[in-house]
């Protein structure tokens, strides 16, 4: 039986921290789905289609990684797609508290799906999409924090095209 996991998120935008988790998780499963959450109630810098495309571009070299979209309950998507594990990245203790609560709720909804926590690479432990957007907005150097294609898109969004 194929072992399938999902790494869900809004990825607004994808960072090198996200990519690190994706690469590491892809080595643990036969197939890893990177699930872009479509949450119309959340204000994003990049629209849903842009986030999807950026993820496809930045993961295209990983053969067993597929980018997909979902809305609604993640656990329902897992059930519909025979997913047995949810991958979550942890940067700090504060992440763990929230992620533990989510994982316990998901387990209540479907005990066949496990949550696997991967701790972040220490060089990305401070990194978040929100922080990247904030620094980019004020012309800070984020070139080492995001893939090149994301850097270009951020520069375009903030009117700093090359």
Automatic annotation (TrEMBL):
Enzyme Commission (EC) number: 2.7.7.3
- Report whether ATP-binding shows up as a keyword of the record: yes
UniProt-annotated location(s): Cytoplasm
Gene Ontology, cellular component aspect: cytoplasm
Asked if Cytoplasm is a keyword of the record, the answer is yes
Molecular function in Gene Ontology: ATP binding; pantetheine-phosphate adenylyltransferase activity
- Pathway entry: Cofactor biosynthesis; coenzyme A biosynthesis; CoA from (R)-pantothenate: step 4/5
- Residue ranges that the Swiss-Prot or TrEMBL entry lists as coiled coil: none
> Which residues are involved in binding substrate?
10, 42, 74, 88
Q: Which residues bind ATP?
A: 10-11, 18, 89-91, 99, 124-130
Q: What keywords is this UniProt entry annotated with?
A: ATP-binding, Coenzyme A biosynthesis, Cytoplasm, Magnesium, Nucleotide-binding, Nucleotidyltransferase, Transferase
Residue intervals of the Cytidyltransferase-like domain: 6-134
Query: Which coenzyme or cofactor does it need?
Result: Mg(2+)
Site features described as Transition state stabilizer, chain residue numbers = 18
Gene3D superfamilies linked: HUPs
Q: What is the reaction catalyzed? A: (R)-4'-phosphopantetheine + ATP + H(+) = 3'-dephospho-CoA + diphosphate
Enumerate the Pfam families for this protein: CTP_transf_like (PF01467)
Give the primary localization class.
Answer: cytoplasm
| Gene Ontology BP term (one) | coenzyme A biosynthetic process
Q: How does it assemble?
A: Homohexamer.
Q: Which HAMAP family match?
A: PPAT_bact
Name the protein family: Belongs to the bacterial CoaD family.
Q: Which NCBIfam families match?
A: coaD_prev_kdtB, cyt_tran_rel
As for what it does, the entry says: Reversibly transfers an adenylyl group from ATP to 4'-phosphopantetheine, yielding dephospho-CoA (dPCoA) and pyrophosphate.
Protein name per Swiss-Prot or TrEMBL: Phosphopantetheine adenylyltransferase
Record organism: Alkalithermobacter paradoxus
């Amino acid at each position: 039986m194929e072992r399938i996991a999902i790494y869900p998120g809004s990825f607004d935008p994808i960072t090198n921290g996200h990519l690190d988790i994706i690469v590491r998780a892809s080595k643990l499963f036969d197939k890893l789905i990177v699930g872009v959450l479509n949450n119309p109630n959340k204000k994003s810098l990049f629209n849903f289609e842009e986030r999807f495309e950026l993820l496809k571009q930045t993961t295209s070299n990983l053969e067993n990684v597929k980018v997909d979209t979902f809305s609604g309950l993640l656990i329902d998507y897992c059930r519909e797609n025979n997913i047995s594990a949810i991958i979550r990245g942890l940067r700090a203790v504060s992440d763990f508290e929230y992620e533990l609560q989510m994982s316990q709720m998901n387990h209540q909804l479907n005990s066949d799906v496990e949550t696997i926590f991967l701790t972040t690479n220490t060089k990305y432990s401070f990194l978040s999409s929100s922080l990247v957007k904030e620094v980019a907005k004020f012309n800070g150097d984020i070139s080492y924090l995001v893939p090149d294609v994301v850097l270009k898109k951020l520069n375009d969004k903030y009117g700093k095209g090359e």
